[in-house]
Design brief:
The structure is a homodimer.
Chain A (H helix, E strand, L loop, with lengths): L1 E8 L12 H9 L11 H8 L11 H12 L2 H4 L3 E7 L3 E5 L9 H14 L1 E2 L7 E5 L2 H8 L4 E10 L2 H8 L6 E5 L8 H5 L3 E4 L7 H16 L2
Parallel strand pairs in A: 1-2, 1-7, 6-7, 6-8
Antiparallel strand pairs in A: 2-3, 3-5, 4-5
Helix pairs in contact in A: 1-2, 3-9, 7-9
Chain lengths: ~220, ~220
């Protein structure tokens, strides 16, 4: 079993501090929701985000959307051998069942994530596909107890992905961690939680590019 | 140089036949555009699409969006060794410069594609990043003259992606063709244009999953 974690994901509800900004109130009204119940999104809230700390790493739910579609569509996931978590910059952890058929449409994905933040699980009855709880990455790792924890970053040691995945192919439940934010690097907290930080390319790559390659190479390493 | 073609992409302007349907007119009005100048999108035009022939393969521009983001973000493309084309179900060919920074936001991508269909190139002045012209897949292949043409489909011969990419790694400009539609198979016309049809997995995979794997494995095969 491979554990995939998209960490510090730029996916969060609009913070209270800027909930009264005109661009947010207007967008929320158009969606017929309260300002505090919509996702922060740079496409629509650029002006409001100027007042936010660490804004360059926030307000990009599209990164989680595209990366999750990529990850959930792999043969590894289809055969039930992938466990996927989304850890957000606001320290929530979203657990995603491998059978989840995520909306392909971005606005529908955003609506689903907003619903999840409000009602804590989706669907509200029956088999739970998505659930959310308040937790740090450290708490998530304590819970899932990976046999090894790797993170991917240009700040890591240069190593081929093939070598990296072959090294973890014999592990019981290794975790691979990719950053779900548009710019910058992992926080010091994240870095301290990993056994190894690997750099697979000298330039920064999109999260979905890194994620798809890791899973494909892991499939090869285990002979799937 | 690898040529990547997403073919029969479910990305087209609303056809005249259904341009007067209430769901289309309402959506166009909200976007302040004419019904014939917006992209057909099942998320918004589901009811109107009932009257369309071959509807199950149409109205999914999200497939092109996610696949292009995946493809343009690869090291192969960043090093200028990938040439990307989008062939649409309505027989337009969109040429995408490798330096194109495609919008990450879906609505902005849709707006860009709508603009492209109206003004034929983007930006309208200076270095051309995106251009569109009326052409079939056959006409595109006649123009780019690939040294070998492979298509990927569950209807093809089962073959590992590694073997497939190693076999084309010595070619001058091989073309790989992936379907940009949600259900069904390539048209007979498409099939007849290929040297080989390869099946890399017994079940249908999302276009973006197939595309990311082909490019990664091709990079490996050429030692990038």
């Amino acid at each position: 079993l491979l554990i995939f974690i998209l960490t510090e994901s730029a996916l969060e509800l609009v913070p209270k501090k800027i909930a009264n900004h005109p661009s947010i109130r207007k967008h929320a009204a158009r969606k017929k929701k309260k300002p505090g119940e919509i996702l922060l999104d740079r496409t629509y809230h650029h002006a409001a985000m100027r007042r936010l700390a660490g804004a360059e790493k926030r307000g990009r739910p599209d990164i989680a959307h595209i990366t999750l579609l990529q990850v959930l569509g792999t043969p590894l996931n289809m055969s039930g051998m992938l466990k996927t978590y989304l850890h957000t910059a606001a320290d929530y952890v979203i657990e995603i069942d491998s059978r989840t058929n995520l909306p392909r449409n971005y606005e529908r994905f955003v609506g689903l994530m907003e619903q999840l933040h409000v009602q804590h699980r989706v669907p509200s009855k029956g088999a739970r596909l998505l659930s959310i709880k308040k937790a740090t990455l450290s708490e998530l790792l304590n819970e899932v107890q990976p046999s090894k924890t790797l993170a991917f970053s240009t700040m890591g040691r240069a190593k081929s992905l093939q070598e990296t995945c072959e090294a973890i192919s014999g592990e019981k439940n290794p975790a691979v961690i990719v950053g779900g934010f548009p710019h910058g690097h992992f926080s010091a907290d994240t870095m301290a939680l990993t056994d190894e930080i690997v750099s697979i390319h000298p330039q920064a790559l999109d999260a979905w590019v890194v994620a798809s390659r890791i899973i494909y190479e892991y499939e090869r390493a285990i002979g799937l």
